[in-house]
Design brief:
This protein is α/β, with parallel strands linked by helices. 56% of the residues lie in helices and 6% in strands.
């Protein structure tokens, strides 16, 4: 009887699973993973995450994912190595904006050949010390070439990539070979150094070699490994989107800090800009997991660290493991006879000194210089002391751990929250060192500390403390978390855990990037959505140098060939990145062109005359009998990406003088006052203050589809320089909206957004007023880009505002005829008009100026010529 009762209480054996159902379930789970992977590729492309080359690599990874999964285990590593080589070929094959197989093969061969030679040195049949000596000699030789790029120009594009793959991993590889218990496998060694996503990420997590070798998941764990990788990549996308938002709307340069509140804003935002690094790392490691590498997480809620040692363990797990393995443990055990405390202190300080030097070493391989700056020394020195003190405290008092189901007390909860807040505040202060150009600049910021610093800083720290309590569940009266091993499941679920959450977030992100969804959002939310989905270039993409990691992750900005490979752009893409083209202005234009510049970027020749205009030389005084047209606009009117003689302004002038529509003896001067990046407000200043001294007979404003938004953006960028605004109407608007230099740009933009149509109409009206004051005919021509992204209604609204302001509007709606937009823009990466498009624009403008009876430029020019000769 007892036996029967006991038998009844025992769980029954799991029912046998039909083999067909088991196979169907596995294929269904794999299908769910594949669908999520495809959705992730779409989201990355839709949101513009990272470079076009990363999009190609991601699509290549998606294509190889199923093949890799279905291969026998012994063939998976060789296939991954081959796929990684293919990724290098795809990325490095971009030359001049187009894919070139010969270029890609040459560059890939140089990369793989140089890397294979370094790996081969490690396996020479020589004594270990001799092999290491040869490796050091090879590294020294490559360092020499890295310093002088002219010695080895074919490797110029490869230095950041080669350095990223070998500068740290080679140290780990050589160390592990000395302690290896099994022979190395060529395919595994190749795959370790040439990891698939590394080709697109010069700043790459330092994957440990032993961890990499042990990471391939067992067959029954592969689906779970894939799902975790997808969730990590999605987390990386969110981190990068948040970075865009913070960088574009909340960040502040140190030289603009003027109050205690702005000091707090500077400290907080710069500490959160590390989201870009963690975003990259999650994308990289998540993609590796899609090929079965069950690698650990790279960052673990580092903003919620309870101590400085805890922060060191969380912020970059792979770097911490690298330093412990190669520097801390060897040093500690070598001097352990000094006593545990002394050995710990010495080994910790040595590890942080190595970290300081290795960060400069990393800068050298990625950027080509070896900086040793005071702010870096202070940063790592202070952090070393704090971590050392924390480590000694943990040795003496023990490290708090969550054991069993013991209930957390209010005291423990408050203590954890306070320690988290203090750690975050201290790290934020230290992190700000990397956002300053010098230690003196950083020290000068603290003169603005006041009561608001304490108030706003306290609020921020309190928010972090609350996040600690909520995220990690340390609520008083609740049992501490203590994950228990779960009972084995009878069968895995048909849909992997996390798939529904991934799909929901992915669909939401994709929807946010759709114009139809954005059109239904509150206008105040538009700047936020635009930053999150990449409609606005990030500060880093625009060329701002925020800190150490930003400059390393934008290494392509300092390497034109690598920029071309990553962004599928010719070297001429760097033309607008030349700092000599414009310089800061002390007036409401905010920037002014630099005169007498002549440069060649690729096949493009760009020059400015004595007045800083991209045009031939003119005299200040108008020659007798000449008909002058002052052309005003932004980049497409200035002639972005084409040579001086190929700009439509130059073509128009040449044709007017060649065909003489006003009869023999008429002379035309079309003067190009357009400047890259000039908003309508900057153009208004040009018409109001600069053009009058040239006495033009007509002012031709070239409209742009982004003019409404540029007006708002110009006003936001003028917040810190309101004294330069020369127009009472704009100053009154600032006062009415309570906008001041202390206003956060995001808030200012959201307040100004509803006024965009009114502001654009006012600006156009002021342009007409300024032109008429100098007896110049106000002309307006909307020149659409070859692939215009604005709707017809939006363009029509801009043109209507110009006509209602009093402009004589020129209709160029059919300027490109039936030509394909893709054939008329500079490249897939750049929507500006190419040479052929400039010819079409010049032809359309010529017909409008000559044939439109409201303009009749020939008759006007003849009248001017006649008056000059007394006829």
């Amino acid at each position: 009887m007892v036996s029967a009762q006991a038998s009844a209480r025992e769980p029954s054996a799991p029912p046998a699973v039909d083999p067909f159902v088991r196979v169907a379930r596995e294929w269904f789970r794999l299908g769910a993973i594949t669908a999520q992977f495809a959705l992730l590729v779409l989201v990355v492309r839709k949101l513009g995450i990272e470079s076009p080359s990363f999009h190609r690599v991601l699509m290549l990874a998606f294509a190889g994912f199923l093949v890799h999964h279905l291969l026998p285990a012994r063939l998976r590593m060789p296939f991954f190595a081959l796929l990684s080589a293919g990724a290098a070929l795809v990325v490095l094959g971009i030359d001049g904006g187009v894919w070139n197989l010969a270029t890609g093969a040459t560059r890939t061969a140089l990369l793989v050949g140089t890397g294979s030679a370094l790996i081969g040195i490690c396996h020479l049949p020589l004594a270990y010390r001799l092999r290491m000596a040869l490796l050091v000699a090879a590294g020294a030789a490559l360092s020499y070439f890295r310093i002088d790029l002219a010695v080895a120009p074919p490797l110029g594009v490869l230095w950041p990539v080669l350095g990223s793959m070998f500068m740290f991993r080679m140290m780990i590889y050589a160390y592990d070979l000395a302690h290896a218990r099994e022979p190395a496998q060529p395919s595994r060694s190749f795959a370790y150094f040439f990891m698939l996503p590394n080709i697109c990420f010069p700043l790459f997590p330092i994957v440990d070699y032993k961890t990499f070798c042990r990471s391939p998941a067992a067959d029954h764990q592969r689906i779970a490994t894939y799902q975790t990788g997808l969730l990590w990549m999605q987390r990386g996308i969110i981190h990068l989107a948040l970075y865009r938002f913070l960088s574009d709307h909340l960040s502040i340069d140190p030289n603009r800090v003027g109050t205690g509140a702005e000091l707090v804003r500077f400290l907080l935002v710069n500490s959160f800009l590390y989201l870009r690094v963690s975003g990259h790392f999650h994308l990289a490691v998540g993609l590796l997991r899609m090929f079965g590498f069950a690698l650990p997480e790279t960052n673990r809620l580092y903003f919620l660290a309870e101590s400085f040692t805890d922060y060191w363990r969380r912020v970059n797990v792979y770097w911490k493991d690298f330093i412990l393995k190669l520097f801390y443990y060897p040093a500690f055990f070598r001097i352990k006879h000094w006593g545990q405390t002394r050995a710990l202190v010495a080994a910790t300080m040595f590890s942080f000194f190595a970290t300081f030097v290795l960060h400069s070493y990393q800068w050298f391989w990625l950027r080509g210089t070896f900086p040793l700056q005071w702010q870096d020394m202070v940063f790592w020195g202070v952090l070393a002391v704090l971590v050392t003190v924390n480590s000694l405290w943990e040795i003496r008092h023990g490290r708090q751990r969550s054991l069993g189901g013991k209930t957390a007390t209010w005291g423990e909860t408050a203590g954890r929250a306070l320690r988290t807040g203090g750690t975050f505040a201290t790290v934020s202060v230290l992190w700000s060192l990397w956002a300053c150009s010098s230690l003196e600049e950083w020290l000068g910021l603290w003169r603005f500390a006041d009561g608001s610093t304490v108030l706003f800083g306290g609020v921020a720290v309190a928010a972090i403390m609350l996040a600690k309590v909520l995220v990690e569940g340390r609520v008083a009266g609740a049992p501490r978390r203590n994950p228990q091993p779960k009972a084995p499941e009878v069968a895995p679920p048909w849909v992997p855990r996390g798939a529904w959450a991934f799909g929901s977030v992915a669909v939401l992100l994709y929807a946010m990037a759709m114009p139809a969804v954005q059109a239904r959002l509150d206008p105040r939310a538009e700047p936020i959505v635009a930053a999150l989905v990449g409609a606005v270039p990030s500060a880093a993409q625009a060329g701002a140098d925020r800190g150490y990691y930003e400059q390393l992750m934008d290494v392509d900005r300092f390497n034109p060939e690598l920029f071309g490979a990553y962004f599928h752009a010719p070297v001429s893409a760097q033309v607008t990145k030349m700092p000599v083209l414009t310089q800061p202005a002390d007036d409401f234009r905010l920037a002014e062109p630099v005169p007498l510049i002549r440069a060649r970027v690729g096949d493009v020749v760009i020059s400015t005359n004595q007045f800083g205009k991209r045009d031939r030389e003119y005299t200040l005084a108008k020659p007798p009998g000449s008909f002058r047209i002052a052309l005003v606009g932004s980049s497409h009117a200035m002639g972005f990406g084409v040579s001086d003689h190929e700009v439509f302004e130059a073509i128009l002038e040449e044709r007017l003088n060649r065909e003489q529509p006003g009869g023999a003896g008429t002379r035309y001067e079309v003067m190009n006052f357009a400047v890259n990046g000039y908003s309508p407000l900057a153009q208004l200043v040009v018409i109001d203050e600069l053009i009058p001294e040239f006495a033009p007979d007509a002012v031709l404003v070239i409209g742009h589809s982004v003019d409404p938004g540029w007006v708002t953006d110009h006003l936001v960028r003028s917040l810190g320089r309101t004294d330069t605004i020369p127009y009472p109407r704009l100053r009154e608007l600032f006062e009415a909206l309570s906008l001041s230099p202390r206003t956060i740009p995001l808030w200012a933009r959201s307040r100004l957004k509803p006024y965009e149509p009114e502001l654009l109409a006012w600006t156009y009206g002021e342009m007409v007023r300024a032109a008429r004051e100098i007896d110049a005919l106000p002309l307006y021509a909307f020149v659409a880009l070859p692939l215009e992204v604005k709707t017809d209604e939006q363009i029509a609204a801009i043109q209507t505002a110009a006509r209602e302001a009093g402009f004589v509007a020129v209709d160029l709606s059919d300027v490109y005829g039936d030509r394909r937009g893709e054939d008329l823009q500079l490249a897939a990466w750049n929507a500006h008009p190419n040479v052929e498009a400039h010819k079409l624009i010049a032809d359309a403008l010529y017909r409008a100026l000559v044939d439109d009876p409201r303009i009749a430029v020939g008759a006007r020019a003849a009248a001017v010529a006649g008056a000059a000769t007394g006829g």
